[in-house]
Amino acid sequence: MKCAVCGRKAAVEVRRQGRAFCPEHYLEWFEHQVARAIRRHRMLEKDDRVLVAVSGGKDSIALWEVLRRLGYDTTGLHIQLGIDDYSKRALEATRRFAEERGLPLIVVDLKEAYRLSIPELAELTRRRACSVCGLTKRYVMNRVAVEEGFDAVATGHNLDDEASVLLGNVLHWQTDALVRQGPVLPAKEKLAKRVKPLYLLTEREILAYTLLRRLPYQHEECPFAVGAKSLLYKEALNKLETAMPGTKQTFLEQYLKKIEPVLQKGLSAEEVALKECERCGYPTTGEVCAFCKTWDHAYRWAKRKGQIPGELRFEAEPRLTFIPEGKRGGDARPAPAQEPAG
Ligand code: AMP
Ligand code: FES
Ligand code: ZN
Ligand code: ZN
To answer: How many Cα atoms sit within 13 Å of 215 on the Cβ side?
Structure first.
């Protein structure tokens, strides 16, 4: 196949668009896709301070690279989950990426900040690791963004993630979750704006980008992902995609265009008011937020088992480590944006 732009030998095929590109024009195409998604959904303003949630995997590393290249003022946030070597290697890749580019990074180590790792939290609460992990990550991302004055949190969710979550929500008709599927969740009192600039790019396309740009990233999957429903949904969607290229994109885009607005209208009439959590002061629909409830529960068991001292009370405020030390972001703007063409 030939590059759709210059006619040279193509290196990457984008099947859902029936096009292929040489390395140079693929990178240009990719960055243009991200810039366009940001503009179309008004995800970010040019001088926003953006907190990029970076797991160290290909998606969030690619996201940080593209935002940096587009000229955004970015700071990384990495949450150390304490899943043995998997987490250590994730931090290594994230640090390397940040240091090589002189970008500021904030690390929250759960074991240091709250005394328990994700595997311990899951065991103590007898819940699935992915569930307590997701809840904890969302809380920490939001809290750091609000307290450090960032305008938005950007995550590396891709088309495969979003289409698979949509499929799961549709199969169970989870209307509450369905209205939160959009690529932008607006800011509210003590809730930072959340954006997903890669939501229309596939895993395969993001991998091609990280490889062509030679970005360091964590290759392994989380050991707790094995057997997760989301992987089953992704497999099913991949089968459909092979038979009918473009299925994932149509499924997600048309849902967001045609169905989500209708659901939004219906639900906003019965919208539940958010209150302040009695424990931490952050928004919740109940008296105590899910984060405080889960960690309080874990602390009770951890004390009974002698894992933590009996007099210790759970404090929701995370301890932050700034890398390099003392650098709080906001002063690391790269050279003016080189806006990709195309
Ligand atoms: P996941 O829920 O693991 O599919 O991750 C979705 C997005 O959440 C990633 O693309 C990151 O932006 C963010 N994320 C996941 N894990 C972490 C982490 N340990 N630290 C910071 N951000 C994370
Ligand atoms: Fe959270 Fe795997 S990344 S449990
Ligand atoms: Zn080309
Ligand atoms: Zn709380």
So the answer is: 27
Element (H, E) at 49: strand 49-53
- Condensed to tens digits (0 to 9), the pLDDT of residues 291-331 reads 999 999 999 999 999 999 999 999 999 999 999 886 666 54
Tell me if 155 CB under 6 Å of ligand 1: yes
Q: Which residue has the tokens 């999957």?
A: 221
What pLDDT, on a 0 to 100 scale, did the predictor assign at position 226?
Answer: 85
Cβ of 196 below 6 Å from ligand 1: no
Residue carrying the six token digits 């490889």 = 211
What are the structural domains, with CATH classification, of the chain?
Answer: 23-219+229-271 (3.40.50.620)
- Is the pTM of the predicted complex or chain greater than 0.85? yes
Residues touching ligand 2 (Cβ under 6 Å) are: 81, 118, 129-130, 133, 222, 224-225
Ligand number nearest CA of 290 is 4
